[in-house]
């Protein structure tokens, strides 16, 4: 034996067999193929020689094939598995670099998105700035009534988006002369002993929907007159959840009671529409 190298005769002495037997086992694939030196002589490394001697003895000179398989396949499997794993890892790495393999993670994310509907308004949009009673009256010593059979149209709108309902009412002021002095009462008793009285005539009044909900549960007020206890008269009342839209209100009337023996002059009052 040269240091680190085992010749056929070294192994043959250890297992008590001749060199031709070892060569035959090599040709049959029972032991690894020996390396060759520069002269062509066979030799084995120390681990190879020890492994051959161990296998020969464990298999009773290759008489027990099960032990032979156990001796070599354990090592072969480990080497084989290692090679396969290396190849698979290399292939996956190459495919990932080429973008042919994608790895998905089942992730979720949420985003809250807002939209805002801005509330509109509740308002009287249209009303005449100036009107007059149907005709002038002549001086009389007795009680008279001046009538306005049709107030100008009023347009109202509820765009609040709340459905809270609303009430449109009418209020007024005492009639004044051109000197801005109160000359005719609007909330008196309507007799010769008082300065006058104004009443709202609701019977001919109508309402029509121009946009939004129809006029369901938008109710007309009742005939009423101003007095010391009545300073506002309801024209229309929209119940809760109704009256969400735009409406035209028309054809209401007014009457002004004038006591006997009035002062001959022009009387002016202010009518106010309030929606709330």
Automatic annotation (TrEMBL):
GO biological process: one example: regulation of DNA-templated transcription
Q: Note whether Transmembrane helix occurs among the keywords.
A: yes
Q: Does the keyword Membrane apply?
A: yes
Q: Report the superkingdom from the record.
A: Bacteria
Query: Could you tell me the keywords of this UniProt record?
Result: Membrane, Transmembrane, Transmembrane helix
Locate the transmembrane regions by residue number. 79-105
Stretches assigned to the WxL domain: 147-275
Molecular-function GO terms, alphabetical: DNA binding
Q: Which InterPro entries match?
A: DNA-bd_dom_put_sf (IPR009061), MerR-type_HTH_dom (IPR000551), WxL_dom (IPR027994)
Q: Which residues form the HTH merR-type domain?
A: 6-48
What name does UniProt use for this protein? Answer: Uncharacterized protein
Give the taxonomic lineage as stored in the record: Bacteria, Candidatus Buchananiibacteriota
């Amino acid at each position: 034996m040269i240091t680190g190298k085992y010749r056929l005769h070294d192994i043959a002495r250890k297992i008590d067999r001749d060199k031709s037997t070892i060569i035959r086992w090599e040709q049959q694939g029972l032991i690894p193929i020996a390396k060759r030196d520069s002269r062509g002589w066979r030799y084995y490394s120390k681990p190879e020689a020890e492994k051959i001697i161990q296998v020969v003895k464990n298999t009773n000179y290759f008489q027990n094939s099960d032990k032979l398989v156990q001796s070599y396949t354990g090592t072969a499997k480990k080497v084989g598995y290692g090679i396969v794993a290396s190849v698979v890892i290399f292939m996956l790495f190459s495919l990932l670099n080429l973008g042919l393999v994608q790895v998905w993670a089942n992730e979720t994310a949420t985003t809250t998105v807002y939209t805002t509907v801005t509330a509109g308004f509740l308002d009287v949009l249209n009303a005449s700035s100036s009107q007059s009673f149907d005709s002038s009256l002549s001086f009389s010593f007795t009680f008279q009534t001046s009538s306005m059979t049709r107030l100008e149209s009023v347009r109202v709108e509820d765009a609040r988006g709340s459905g809270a309902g609303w009430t449109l009412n009418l209020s007024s002021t005492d009639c004044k002369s051109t000197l801005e002095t109160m000359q005719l009462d609007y909330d008196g008793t309507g007799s010769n002993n008082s300065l006058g009285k104004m009443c709202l005539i609701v019977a001919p009044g109508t309402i029509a929907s121009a946009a939004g909900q129809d006029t369901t549960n938008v109710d007309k007020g009742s005939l009423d007159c101003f007095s010391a206890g009545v300073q506002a008269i309801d024209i229309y009342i929209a119940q809760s959840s109704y009256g969400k839209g735009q409406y035209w209100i028309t054809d209401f009337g007014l009457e002004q009671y004038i006591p006997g023996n009035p002062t001959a002059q022009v009387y002016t009052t202010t009518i106010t529409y309030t929606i709330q």
